[in-house]
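seq as requested:
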Amino acid sequence: QVQLVESGGGLVHAGGSLRLSCAVSGNIANVYVMGWYRQTPGTQREYVASISRDGLPRVRDSAKGRFTISRDDVNSTVYLQMNDLKPEDTAAYYCYAAAARGLKDRDDYWGQGTQVNVSS
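struct tokens:
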């Protein structure tokens, strides 16, 4: 099992910044990618950013140049630095981790979510 605990959400004005943190614990040996999704009421959860075990980052197109994902393996934490926030970034942000199980299967883990509100 892998446990994920997010923090860092809050209310900011448009153009402001927030840094989300995701503390990872448990059986993390097989975790090969971690990242962030977000969701607003009545919509599907959507991909935001991810970072591989090797440190290769990916960010959704609408957040490129504004969001940066990074990881601190010493402290077992993944960060999402969000700059120049826009009202459309308002959502609940969820940390996730994918862990390999055997040769073909995987387990997905999710945090409890942290709310980000961006006012115009």
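The chain has a mean pLDDT of 95.
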